[in-house]
Structure formats: C-alpha cells, structure tokens
Amino acid sequence: MRLDRFLQLNSPYSRQQIKRLLATGQVSVAGCFVTEGTVEVDRFIRIELEGRLLQEAQGYYYMLYKPAGVVSATEHPEHKTVLELLPENLRDGLHLAGRLDLKTTGLMLLTNDGNWSRRVTQPESTIPKTYHVTTKDHVAVEAEDVFSRGIYFSYEGITTRPATLERIDSCHSRLTIHEGRYHQVKRMFGYFDNEVTELHRESIGDLILDPELKMGDFRPLTAAEIALF
Ligand code: URA
Description:
The protein is of the alpha+beta class. The protein folds into two domains: 53 residues, Structural Genomics Hypothetical 15.5 Kd Protein In mrcA-pckA Intergenic Region, Chain A (Roll); 163 residues, Pseudouridine synthase, CATH 3.30.2350.10. 21% of the residues lie in helices and 28% in strands. It has seven helices and 15 strands. The radius of gyration is 22 Å and the shape is elongated. The mean pLDDT is 94. The chain binds uracil. The site of uracil (URA) has 8 residues, from helix 6. Uracil binds next to helix 6.
C-alpha cells in the first residue's frame, strides 16, 4: 500500500494535512524520515507519525494449549480469556485466529497479523482441522459414511464438506473437518443424537499442537510453522 493511503486510513488527518506532515518530516518509515507519500509500505514495517507508533515492525504468532473453561475471546465479563493466559506485555494487538467452545481444549492460534489469521479462518478456507472426540454413546456404524458425504445444516443452508472419521474405540474418535461452522463437530454428532462430552483440537493443517506444551501454556510459532498458512 502507498504510504499516503496508509496514513489516511490510520490517522485522523486529511489528504492535505498528510501532505504537509510528510513535507515537514513528521513521518518515519523503518526509522527514516520519508517525505514522499508514493512510497510503498508493507504489513510489518515500523511507521511513526509525529513520533507516535502507527504500525509495529513485527508480526507475532503463538500457539496455545487452550484449557476447558477459558473463553476464546480477548475480553469477557465472566470467564478468563485465552488472551489472559499470555503475560500482559505480550498481549498488545493480538487477536485469535479461530475459536473453540468454552469446554473444548487444544490448539489455538494468536497473532497480530490479520492477513495471516484470515487465511486460517476464512469460511472458504479448506484447511483441515482435526479433533479428538469423546461421545456419550457409541459412534454409529454409518457415521463414517454420512460424515464423508456431508451433513445438511438447515440454519446456514449448506452441506458440510466431506469429513474424515477415524474410530479409536466405541466412544472415542478422530474427526477431520474442512471448515469451521458454529459448533460444527457437536452438530455433526448431534445428527446421530450422540452428545460430544469432550472435544480436543489436535491440529490445524500441518500445524500440530506441540506435545511439549502443557494445558494453558503457549509458545511462539517457528518461521516454518508461520509459513504453513
Ligand atoms: N466444533 C465444535 O462443536 N466445538 C468446537 O469448539 C470446535 C468445533
């Protein structure tokens, strides 16, 4: 994006005021004063206007092992939030790349990079998400076939994308879905009147919850992990 456009979107100033601020050396990019609004700036270059930071130089990406009872939100009046599992000095500007229900455990992603999180979460994204599922009753024999053909969700008026069910034992299975509809896994098992009693997200695409992480812990993603999406 052009610097002058970026400044228009990220400051209260008019185009004329921005021209003047540029001309009088009030704008710096990566620590250097820039007077030309036509300069192209990218997502993670440090931009300051009148000495105020408008954009950070760096993207931050974390995986976190969500415990049950922690809400997938950045603020909540009642429950502890996923963001509050990180120390305060790391929280600034972070948002969640996807959500899990209150009782669901497992892999969650946090970042300050909106483009990256959109690639992970956008409804059209077919990135597989794999869950370990515990159900109240035995998993129906035909579930594998029904899930692979898709289930009609009347509320959204859509049929779920083909999903893969792997039986572990009668009440435990592994389900891989390729979208993220509201309560999707519970609703899929609900088709068979089977209640999901425990749900745990193991992976998103090729990104697997680090087995070294304990519940409630987090760690930065590696460069190779960030590049997966
Ligand atoms: N599907 C659900 O039903 N719940 C989750 O938390 C994630 C997927």
